[in-house]
Design goal:
The complex is a heterodimer of chains A (276) and B (284).
Chain A lengths: L3 E13 H4 L8 E12 L6 E3 L10 E2 L6 H7 L9 E3 L19 E5 H8 L9 H11 L5 E4 L1 H4 L2 E4 L2 E5 L8 E7 L2 E7 L5 H6 L20 H13 L3 E4 L5 E4 L3 E6 L3 E2 L3 E3 L7
Parallel strand pairs in A: 3-5, 5-6, 6-7, 11-12
Antiparallel strand pairs in A: 1-2, 1-4, 1-15, 2-3, 8-9, 9-10, 10-11, 12-13, 13-14, 14-16
Chain B lengths: L3 E13 H4 L8 E12 L5 E4 L15 E3 L6 H7 L7 E5 L19 E5 H9 L8 H11 L5 E4 L8 E4 L2 E5 L8 E7 L2 E5 L7 H6 L20 H13 L3 E3 L6 E3 L5 E5 L3 E2 L3 E2 L9
Classes of the chains: A alpha+beta (276), B alpha+beta (284).
Chain lengths: 276, 284
């Protein structure tokens, strides 16, 4: 059975533009979506990439589709039916709901990311309560699958689903590559937060095919830039956690956007895209 | 005021002789002490280096046994000196293993815990399993997310000491665990090096190193995370860093100018008198 990816909309919140795109429109708020990706058709059962916020705190606008649990139930999926939860990274808007999943749902994360989140780096992005839940999983048989992607290279989770070190956003971020009938989809977390402003019409950039990095990057500029280019080169579909998916042509060109909730799915062509 | 170290007896650990020194008679029961070091004489207040294990039964997860003899244990040792946990201004960790960071939660958040970021990262990442118990690590995460409850160091260079207080510095140990640090305390009778578990048994690892034949070669521990070469280098660096070698699982040894043992501490205060240097009975 072919692998498909469904977008779950988990709500939205306001951030500063310069948080999404480095130095871009500081002081101007912009609404950004929070998403999970549900991978179906895998050999061991459904898989979920990221779990969104723990609670809809101040500034978070709940999703009209309901909470994560409700959206899963609408599809006949209980938390225990999810075989794996994979994390692009462990920021509080990505790893907030792991505790609705039993220990038999194995949470897959890159070890360096957990190390990062527990050791006092960018504490405004990680939540202590989420980190402590992860530590409990680490010490519960079968509840966590720790990857060491920087040293191991890519790891195949099930046939057609591969975790790779992202090399950007955070030190421990990972991309999840999913083989669909229409090519490889790369779930890239927050490596790209806004497709149009970072890849299609990036502000400030002068050079050919140079992306604009996000403001919320925690690695060096060169690592962040290279990581975006590497992700683009790895896929036909780029799936960020806060924006609608993009179709990517050879050479890392974004040529279209997916408007619906399924990948692969109908694409709206970009009439005129720019890379500089 | 001159700085001094006072040794607290935090309890014994019964384990296999081979756990400490690589290749040392596997299968033979062995026991060692667990020390905490109280640094006296700083204007900032009292600094306690390491806190021992949370409870004796905790050690059983590692196939060991903890025994706290009457009159020992952290709370008892503090009480004997008229101290309450809140009287300790800083806790400083050589590393965060089960028998070194087990009692941080008896101290209020106003007692600042000093640790190396890489060590906490290591502890949280699960690589070493229950050597870093989840109860201990979660407490440290709470400290990280509480204002001023944690002082996180980024000691990444083994040759650049970081001065924390006048005459007290730390440096990356480069051995035992990824984030272990040595604590260097300048006393008026030489520098004391609190070396965590980089060195367990100075006789069997340095003075008469088991199985080694090279001149001044050292024997590494079994309980290590690094490569043999880096572990050896880490031990050699400890020996170069001061006169008083202060491990956590045996009493300190005073080295002379030729780096030979002048004697083992006779008492619980460094600097202090020494007794003739002999191999530990439990190792023999």
């Amino acid at each position: 059975m072919a692998l498909t990816i469904e977008i779950l909309n988990l709500g939205s919140y306001d951030v500063d533009w310069s948080y999404l795109v480095k130095y871009h429109r500081p002081g101007v708020p912009v609404s950004t979506q929070v998403m999970s990706y549900l991978i179906q058709g895998g050999a061991e059962g459904p898989m979920l990439v990221d779990t969104g916020f723990r609670a809809n705190g101040s500034g978070v606008k709940p999703s009209s589709d309901g909470a994560l649990e409700e959206q899963l139930l609408q599809r006949g999926i209980r938390p225990a039916d999810i075989r794996y939860v994979l994390h692009t990274h462990l920021h509080h808007d990505h790893a907030g709901k792991d505790d609705i999943f039993p220990g038999s749902t194995t949470v897959i994360m890159n070890r360096r990311e957990l190390e990062f989140g527990c050791s006092g780096l960018s504490i405004e992005e990680y939540a202590a309560v989420d980190m402590k839940h992860m530590i409990d999983r680490v010490h519960t048989p079968g509840a966590a699958w720790m990857l060491d992607l920087e040293d191991s290279g890519p790891v195949e989770i099930v046939p057609g689903v591969v975790a790779v070190s992202a090399g950007g956003h955070t030190e421990g971020s990972m991309n999840i590559l999913v083989e669909t009938e229409a090519g490889i989809a790369c779930i890239c977390g927050d490596l790209v937060t806004h497709v149009h402003e970072q890849l299609v019409a990036p502000p400030f950039q002068l050079n050919h095919r140079e992306p604009r990095i996000a403001g919320c990057s925690y690695v060096s500029q060169i690592h962040e830039t290279a990581a975006i280019k590497r992700a683009l080169a790895s896929c036909t579909w780029l799936l960020p956690s806060h924006d609608a998916p993009a179709r990517v042509a050879k050479g890392g060109l974004v040529t279209g956007r997916i408007g619906g909730a399924m990948v692969p799915g109908p694409v709206s062509e970009l009439e005129a895209f720019r890379t500089t | 005021m001159a700085l001094s170290l006072e040794i607290l007896d935090l309890g014994d650990v019964h384990l296999d002789a081979a756990f400490e020194v690589r290749g040392r008679t596997p299968g033979k029961p062995y026991s060692c002490r667990t020390s905490g070091y109280l640094i006296h004489g700083l204007a900032d207040g009292l600094v306690l280096v390491d806190t021992g294990y949370r409870a004796p039964e905790m050690m059983e997860t590692g196939g060991m046994r903890g025994v706290i003899r009457p009159g020992c244990g952290l709370e008892t040792e503090l009480a004997k000196r008229g101290l309450q946990p809140k009287d300790i201004r800083y806790i400083l960790h050589t590393h965060l293993h089960i028998d070194h960071a087990g009692k941080d939660d008896i101290f209020p958040m106003s007692t600042t815990v000093i640790m190396n970021r890489d060590e906490l990262a290591m502890a949280a990442g699960g690589l070493a399993g229950l050597a870093y118990p989840p109860e201990d690590v979660k407490h440290l995460v709470d400290r990280v997310y509480t204002k001023d409850a944690a002082w996180i160091l980024d000691a990444q260079d083994a040759h650049s000491p970081i001065e924390l207080f006048p005459h007290v510095a730390v440096q990356l140990a480069g051995g035992h665990t990824r984030g272990s640090i040595n604590v260097l305390v300048e006393t008026d009778k030489g520098t004391a090096v609190i070396c965590g578990d980089v060195l367990y048994d100075i006789h069997d690892q340095y003075v008469n190193p088991l199985f080694e034949i090279g001149h001044r070669e050292v024997r590494i521990a079994t309980n290590t995370q690094g490569a043999e070469r880096t572990e050896k280098a880490a031990i050699k660096k400890v020996l170069e860093s001061g006169a008083w070698i202060c491990p956590m699982h045996e009493l300190p040894t005073l080295l002379d100018d030729l780096k030979q043992p002048q004697g083992r501490l006779d008492g619980i205060v460094v600097p202090g008198p020494v007794a003739p240097f002999v191999r530990l009975k439990s190792a023999a």
